[in-house]
Structure formats: C-alpha cells, structure tokens
Amino acid sequence: MITIKAFNKGLVCKDFQYEIGKTYKIPKEDVIICEHGFHASANCDISETVDYYPVSTNTEYALVDINVVDKKNDKVVGDKIKIIKKLDSVEELIEYDKTGKWCVSYASINKNIDIKRFENLVIQKDTTGEWCYRFACWVKGANIKRLENAVIEKDQTGEWCYRFACWVKGANIKRLENAVIEKDQTGEWCEKFAEWVEGADVKKLRNKVDRKYKDSWYKKFTQWIKDISIFKFLKQEVKK
C-alpha cells in the first residue's frame, strides 16, 4: 500500500532513523497496532498524521510502501515498509492533504505565507465545515465572512455553525443561529447555542429543542404501540 508516513526531523521515528530507498521488516507475529510495527496513514492523507506528529519544522514526511497487517481508524500498521521518497516541498504536502486539516495547521504556524491561498485550499478540501471553522479561529488575517459562508454550506449537523458563533470574533450570530435551527436533528446544538452564544434568541432555540424532544418521544411511543399490536396479533395467532 502506498501511503504517507510522518517522522521527527531526520526521518526518525521512535528513535530509529530511516533512509530513503531502504526496506525494513519485522516478524508479522510481532505486529500490534498502536504498539509495535510500521505505522502510517490509513488513507494516504497527511492530515491523518497531524494528531501524532504536530505540524512544525521538526516534522518530516515521506511516501512509503507498507505491507498492511492491521488497520484502526486513521492508521495502518505493517510488518514491512519501504521509504520511497521524502516529501520536501509545500506543494507536495498540500497535494496529500485530503481534508484541509494539515493546511489549517500549517497556516496557523507560518506567518510568511499567502493566507488567501491556504484559505482557498481549506474551503476546497473541507467537506464538513470543521476545518473552515478552525481556520477562522486559528489563522490571523482569515476572511471571517467567507469562511462563515463555507461552514454554513458544509455543516450537516449544526455543530460547526454553533462553534463558529461561539468562538469566532465577528461572526454573524443571527445567521448562524438560523443555520443551527435548520440543521440540528437532535436539539443538542440548539441547546448549546442558547446556553453559550452571547446574543442568541434563547426562546426560539429552546422551542426547537422542545419540538425535537417531543418528536423523539412521539416516535418512540408510536413504535411501542405498534410493537404491542404485533405482539397481541401473534399471541392470538398462536392461540388459534
């Protein structure tokens, strides 16, 4: 499997230095995911390495060929790995970012970059609204209105609209409130919006929450009635 692996500076991982072009092996029976073996991104996505190797001048990346033994969430582990190529340029690193998470982290720690370009990349790559929200939070000079529009468009649950309203200075509270009311299917984000966002229409939001709870209760009640009816019918059939 061709994918991305992150390293500490010098292509070092767990105090072992790797070299470009070389292949490394361990016994297959020794492989334990998250404990022992060669680990890398599960989806050839540099964003999947960020939680383990924070974006910094001390983090390096390489394209690797790994013989996968096991997989868990965002990572794979193997008993054999070949270091194909070190990814040196920012252009290469951007290419392997599938969600926008890496771009957000990179933009947040680098002052001398084209902010607008990275903002465009995040809006293009992000499918949930999370990374547009985080760009607005973490990157100085971000276009708040444009990112807000992207979050409203991409967010499917209301969570990122709520968080945007709560944490981003200059956010349009009323517009985000309406988006949360429209998107929230559980009442959770309407309730949080009412509790935590200054300027929220608490009555309007909690009316939505109440309706959600009532709808949920009604669905459970009607299902319970159906179950009882089916049970009575089956009981009668057995008696016959």
Number of strands: 7
The major sheet is characterized as: 5 strands, antiparallel
Mean pLDDT, rounded to whole units?
Answer: 90
What is the helix content? 40-55%
Order of SSEs: EEEEEEEHHHHHHHHH
> Which regions have little confidence, pLDDT < 50, spanning 5+ residues?
231-235
Number of domains: 2
Computed Rg: 24 Å
- Secondary-structure-derived class: alpha+beta
Q: Characterize the overall form.
A: elongated
The number of helical segments is 9
Strand proportion, as a percent range, falls in 15-25%
Task: Provide an overview of this structure.
There is one protein chain. By secondary structure, the chain is an alpha+beta fold. The protein has two domains: 2-94, no CATH class; 98-214, no CATH class. Helix content is 47%, strand content 18%. It is elongated and about 65 Å long. Residues 231-235 have low confidence and may be disordered.
In short:
By secondary structure, the chain is of the alpha+beta class. The chain has helices spanning 90-95, 101-109, 115-125, 130-138, 144-154, 159-167, 173-183, 188-196, 202-239, and strands spanning 2-8, 12-13, 16-17, 23-25, 38-41, 59-72, 75-86. The longest helix has 38 residues, at 202-239.
